[in-house]
Amino acid sequence: MKHLLRFDKKLPTMMLVTIALLMISITTATAAESVYINPSSSSAAYGEMVTVEIRVSSETAFQGGQFELGFDPDCVMINGFELGNNFNFGGASPVDQNSEKILFAAVNLLPAGDYLIGELTLECVGSACTTDLAFEGVKKIVDKQNTLDVNWVNACLICTGEDPGSGDVSANVYMSPSSSSASYGEVVTVEVWVSSDIPLQGGQFELGYDPDCVMINDFVLGNDFSFGGASQVDQNSEKILFAAGALLPAGDYLIGKLKLECVGCACTIPLTFEGEKKVVDKQTTLDVNWIDGEFTCTDDGPISGDGSEVYMNPSSSNAVYGEETMVEIRIDANTSFQGGQFELGYDPGCVKINDFVLGSDFAFGGASQVDQNSEKILFAAEALLPAGDYLIGVLKLECVCENESCSTPLTFEGEKKIVDKQDLLDVHWVNGCFSCNENPDGLSLTAGWNFVSVPYTLTNSSFSYIIGDLPVDAVMSYNSSLSQHWVLSMDLMWEPLKGYWIHATEDCIIPAERLAKSLPPNPTEIQLYNGWNAIGHCDSTDTLNPELVLKSIDTKYGYIMGPWDPVEKTYTQCGHNNETGIISEKHMGTDIFEMNPYEGYWLYMNETGVYGSFGC
Question: Which of 412, 264, 406 is nearest to 349 (CA)?
Answer without folding.
Answer: 406
